[in-house]
Design a protein that fits this description.
This protein has 479 residues and is α/β, with parallel strands linked by helices. The chain has 17 helices and 16 strands. It has helices spanning 17-28, 66-70, 72-75, 109-113, 120-132, 134-141, 152-161, 166-173, 177-187, 200-212, 223-235, 264-271, 277-284, 322-332, 378-388, 404-410, 461-474; strands at 10-13, 33-36, 48-49, 58-59, 86-87, 91-96, 102-105, 217-218, 239-241, 257-260, 291-299, 313-318, 343-346, 361-369, 396-402, 445-447. The two termini are 37 Å apart.
Length: 479
């Protein structure tokens, strides 16, 4: 069994965006830091690989990154000097309907509202104040649950918009099917049940982010974000060890602080009796979120959408009406299957041709399924896309499907295909109810993964928050 022999102040287990953010923040404070990664490639759930054919570069997990672009910590780093370049499509998002119409989320609030007919005024009144104050809101939203907000009045106004369920928000705020479906499709990114209180928060935040910062993709794929973080970390004196599986604390220096970019169930297996009894009991039965079924396609042509305006956006929501999406998501999150699933789809090569051979394309998409599902949804997913893009199958050169078990095999953090770091109903107090959710014991062991506030999405703030909590405990001030 491999052991880390060198002395260091801190070890970070896992090199995903949260792990790297944690490591960088610790290094900024002057600590010696080593990042340990089980795989041969760093990046966690932000990786790019040739999954179908040579020369076709697919995002294995995450693909579109509004909160990475909005992240206060990532924005503070010179990642552009380490190869990161954001690519924006002319429209942020396209939501096609079976009759050939499409709702577009554009960068301008008024520009988006102009296409929403009777909801034009209510759309502007709802989103313009949030977009105007987006930087302030993000700064507070991405901090630990227990903190004194810098902008309490602005945050409270935003909070009033998010007390309701996503379903209630859509149908009480908007009258038109276009506006309702556009919002519900965005809210359905969340693994939360859309009829539950507070489930409106993700939809409102993501929709506002679309206006404020866009939903960009990294040029060259999601792996470029990971490579930029690693490159910067090494440039400031950090160290990384790959192909290093941690199965017990005895593999790590006894005096090093240890930060886990892992789920609570994985941490329990590594730490064993080192955790306090009640915390260990909670970690053993830490609830999981739904799984995802994910596909990648190598294509010989762009996707032939009924409405050509769909080709203005890198991201599409495939699901039809608001009611269709609500039914699809309700069943998926209650352990059932549907014939017409809601699909999040990305078509990056329309805007970044470097990721496929000349004249050819890739597409990426996933739908929610029961955790641990063994059902291959390939035909169902492609049938759903064909509703809005007749002839899609004729463009496919090769496909690659990843079932929940495949995702977990590739990345053990994704237990049963759960890409959300745990049960979304436990979104506020995760992994357990605690004033300091990042601290695991008397100060040596910490958790910095998406199983902590502010939760899932590629923003690195779980790792940054964990590092700041630890540094305060050590009475070290980070720059």
């Amino acid at each position: 069994m491999r052991s880390l022999k060198k002395h260091c102040d801190a070890v970070v287990v896992g090199s995903g965006p949260n792990g790297m953010a944690c490591a960088i923040a610790l290094r900024h404070a002057g600590l010696s830091v080593v990042v340990i990664e089980q795989a041969s490639q760093t990046g966690g759930a932000a990786k790019t690989e040739e999954l179908t054919l040579p020369g076709f570069y697919h995002d294995v997990y995450s693909a579109v990154h509004p909160f990475a672009a909005a992240s206060p910590f990532f924005k503070s780093l010179p990642l552009e000097n380490h190869g990161l370049k954001w690519v924006h499509s002319p429209a942020v998002l396209a939501h096609p309907f079976e009759n050939g119409e499409v709702a577009l989320l554009r960068r301008g609030v008024a520009e988006t509202a102009n296409d929403l007919d009777a909801d034009s005024k209510s759309y502007v009144e709802t989103f313009q104040p949030i977009v105007d104050n987006f930087d302030c809101l993000v700064d507070d939203m991405l901090k630990p649950i227990f903190h004194w907000p810098k902008h309490p009045l602005k945050l409270s106004r935003f909070g009033l918009q998010t007390l309701r369920s996503a379903q209630s928000f859509a149908f009480r705020t908007f009258q038109s099917e276009k506006a309702r479906a556009l919002y519900i499709g965005i809210a359905a990114h969340s693994p939360q049940r859309l009829n539950k209180r507070f489930s409106s928060a993700i939809g409102v935040s993501l929709q506002a982010a679309g206006h404020a910062v866009g939903w960009p993709i990294p040029k060259g794929g999601a792996g470029q974000l990971s490579e930029a973080l690693v490159s910067y970390f090494i440039s400031i004196g950090g160290e990384i060890e790959t192909d290093f599986l941690v199965e017990g604390l005895d593999q790590l220096p006894s005096r090093s602080a240890v930060f886990f970019d892992l789920t609570p169930r994985q941490i329990d297996k590594i730490t064993g009796v080192k955790l306090p009894r009640l915390k260990r009991a909670a970690f053993k039965k830490y609830p999981l979120g739904c799984g995802v079924f994910k596909m990648d396609w190598a294509l010989n042509a762009p996707i032939p959408w009924k409405n050509p305006n769909c080709s203005l956006a890198a991201t599409l929501h495939i699901g039809g009406s608001a009611d269709e999406i609500l039914e699809s998501e309700f069943k998926a999150k209650n352990g059932e299957f549907v014939d017409r699933p809601y699909i999040i789809l990305s078509q990056p090569t329309l805007f970044d041709p470097s990721r496929a051979p000349r004249g050819q394309h890739i597409a990426w998409g996933y739908c929610h399924v029961p955790n641990g599902s063994k059902t291959n949804m390939t035909e169902i997913v492609e049938n759903q896309i064909e509703r809005f893009a007749p002839g899609f199958r004729q463009t496919i050169l090769k496909r690659n499907a990843l079932l929940p078990r495949d995702l977990e095999t590739r990345n053990p953090n994704l237990i049963g295909g759960d890409i959300f770091g745990g049960d979304p109903e436990q979104i506020f107090f995760r992994p357990t109810v605690s004033i300091n959710p990042y601290r695991l014991d008397d100060g040596r062991l910490w958790i910095c993964s998406s199983s902590t506030p502010p939760g899932p999405a590629v923003h690195g703030m779980c790792g940054f928050n964990a590092a700041r909590a630890a540094l305060r405990s050590m009475q070290i001030v980070s720059k």
